[in-house]
Specification:
It contains 19 helices and 14 strands. The protein has about 450 residues and is α/β, with parallel strands linked by helices. Strand 3, helix 2 and strand 4 form a beta-alpha-beta unit.
Length: about 450
C-alpha cells in the first residue's frame, strides 16, 4: 500500500496545513485535489480520502455522491461542521467510513485513518500474510483482522507494539511484518529483554568499546547497529528496568546512541518492533513503565487474541503442526481421531499456540504412525477455568508448574503465582480490597494496579 492520503477541499487553509503536518508525522504522503477532480483517476491504492466542509451548513454530500458513483467511497472520511443527524446517516449510507465533526479531534482522526487503511487492504495481502505466517495460521474473523493489521504495519515504518499472552505468535508476527515491509532486504534481529541481565543488556543492545568491562578485549557491535536498515524486535519489553527504559527512549527520539564505554555518538536507521505479554497501559498507570516510552513504542499497536478466544483455529493449527511434525521428524501420522480433536477443541489452552504445537509434537512422536488418539494435556485448576467451561480438576500449585513447563512459560511462573494468590484472596475476603491490601502490607493503589495487570 502506498500510504497516500488524498485531501479534497482543504485547499491552503491553516487547518489543512495542520492536518498535512499531522499526516506526515504518521508516515503518510498527502495529495491535494479540488472538488472538481474527485472522479479523475486516483493513485492506487489511496489510503484515505478526506472531504472537508468549507464552512457552509450542509456537508459536501454531492462530492461524496460523486466519489460513491466513481467507486472510491471505501476509504472516505468526511469532515464537516454543524452536521445534522440525518446528514450523518446519509453520508454513512453513501459509504463514508467515518464522519468527523469540527473542530477536528486529532485522536479521532488518527483512529479513523487507521480504520481506513485497514479497509483498503486487499484480499491478496491477507493471503500473502497468511501464507508467510504458518505458526499463527487461522481463518477465524479475529485472526483475519490480525492479518490485516500486520499488512498495514508492513506498509509503513512506524514502531509497532505487539501485545498478547505468552505463546500467541508475537515473534512470528514481528517477522511477518519485516518480511513484507520495505526493510525486507535488510537484517532482522531479535533480543529478549528478560533473558539478559540488566548489566549486560546495554552492551548487547548498543554495543561496547574495548575495555568497557571485564573480558571486553575487543569492540562489540550491538543489536541496534547490526540491524541497520532492517528491523529489531525487542521481546518482553514490559520487563525492561526503568533505568534502561530511559536509555531506550533517548535512542528512539533521535536514533543516536553510544556504545558502552565510548563517548562517540553513533546513529542507526532501524525499525523497532516491541512485544510484551503485559498490559503496558496498566503498567504506565501504575508507574512501572514510562508513559513517553510507551507512546514511542505504540505508534501502531496490534493485539493478538489468545487461542481460547478463537477455537475455530484449533482444528487448522492441529493439522498444520501434524504436517510439520511429519516433515521435520520423519513421522507418518495420517489423522487425528475425533476424540482427540474434540478434546483439543474443549481444552482451555493456557499456553496458546506454543502449547498446542508442543502437545501436537509430543503426541505425534508417541504415535509415530497412523492416528493421534489423544494429547498429553497438563491438568487445569478450577480457578483458571473460564466461566461456563468444564475444566479438569487438579492440584493447585503443582498443576500450575506442570502447565508452565508444558507450555514453555516457566519464566512467567511468578506472575501466575501472584495472579492465583490475588484471585484466592479476593474470594477469601469477599472482594474487600482494603482488607487485602492491609493483610499484604501494600497500598490500595498498588493492589489496584496489580489486580488490573492480572485482569482481576
Amino acid at each position: 500500500m502506498s500510504g497516500n492520503v488524498i485531501l479534497i477541499g482543504w485547499d491552503c487553509s491553516s487547518q489543512g496545513k495542520a492536518v498535512e503536518r499531522l499526516l506526515k508525522t504518521q508516515g503518510l504522503a498527502c495529495e491535494h485535489r479540488s472538488t472538481q477532480e474527485v472522479v479523475s483517476p486516483m493513485s492506487e491504492p489511496a489510503a484515505v480520502l478526506l472531504v472537508r466542509e468549507s464552512g457552509t451548513q450542509a456537508p459536501r454530500l454531492p462530492v461524496l455522491q460523486a466519489l460513491h458513483d466513481s467507486g472510491n467511497t471505501r476509504s472516505v472520511i468526511l469532515v464537516g461542521d454543524r452536521l445534522l443527524p440525518e446528514q450523518v446517516v446519509q453520508a454513512t449510507r453513501m459509504g463514508a467510513l467515518d464522519v468527523l465533526p469540527e473542530p477536528l479531534d486529532t485522536d479521532r482522526l488518527l483512529s479513523a485513518l487507521q480504520q481506513a487503511r485497514l479497509s483498503s487492504l486487499s484480499t491478496h495481502v491477507d493471503e500473502v500474510i497468511r501464507e508467510d505466517c504458518p505458526s499463527i495460521l487461522g481463518s477465524s474473523p479475529k485472526m483475519v483482522e490480525v492479518f490485516k493489521q500486520l499488512g498495514v504495519a508492513a506498509s509503513n515504518d512506524l514502531n509497532v507494539l505487539l501485545t498478547g499472552e505468552t505463546g500467541v505468535g508475537k515473534e512470528v508476527s514481528a517477522y511477518c511484518i519485516h518480511r513484507h515491509s520495505s526493510r525486507a532486504g535488510g537484517p532482522y534481529m531479535a533480543i529478549n529483554c528478560t533473558a539478559i541481565p540488566e548489566g549486560l543488556l546495554e552492551a548487547e543492545l548498543f554495543g561496547h568499546a574495548r575495555g568497557a568491562y571485564t573480558n571486553a578485549v575487543n569492540e562489540g557491535v550491538g543489536k541496534i547497529e547490526a540491524a541497520e536498515g532492517g528491523t529489531l524486535l525487542l521481546d518482553e519489553i514490559g520487563d525492561m528496568s526503568p533505568t534502561f527504559q530511559a536509555k531506550l527512549l533517548r535512542f528512539l527520539e533521535d536514533k543516536h546512541f553510544h556504545r558502552l564505554g565510548d563517548a562517540s555518538a553513533r546513529s542507526a536507521d532501524v525499525r523497532i518492533i516491541a512485544a510484551t505479554n503485559r498490559d503496558l497501559s496498566a503498567e504506565v498507570e501504575s508507574g512501572r513503565f514510562r508513559r513517553d516510552l510507551y507512546y514511542r513504542l505504540a505508534q501502531f499497536p496490534i493485539s493478538i487474541p489468545p487461542l481460547r478466544e478463537r477455537p475455530d483455529d484449533v482444528r487448522s493449527l492441529v493439522r498444520a503442526f501434524v504436517a510439520e511434525a511429519n516433515l521435520r521428524l520423519g513421522l507418518k501420522i495420517t489423522e487425528v481421531s475425533e476424540e482427540a480433536e474434540a478434546a483439543a477443541l474443549d481444552y482451555h489452552w493456557p499456553g496458546n499456540v506454543r502449547e498446542l504445537k508442543n502437545l501436537v509434537y509430543q503426541a505425534a512422536v508417541r504415535a509415530r504412525v497412523g492416528s493421534i488418539t489423544g494429547f498429553p494435556f497438563a491438568v487445569e485448576t478450577e480457578t483458571e477455568c473460564p466461566a461456563g467451561r468444564e475444566c479438569r480438576s487438579g492440584g493447585g500449585l503443582e498443576s500450575l508448574v506442570q502447565r508452565a513447563v508444558a507450555g514453555g512459560r516457566v519464566r512467567h511462573l511468578l506472575e501466575e503465582f501472584e495472579a492465583l494468590t490475588l484471585r484466592s484472596l479476593l474470594e477469601a475476603f469477599g472482594g474487600n480490597r482494603s482488607r487485602i491490601s492491609e493483610e499484604l502490607g501494600i497500598s490500595r493503589n498498588t493492589l489496584r494496579a496489580k489486580l488490573k495487570v492480572h485482569g482481576l
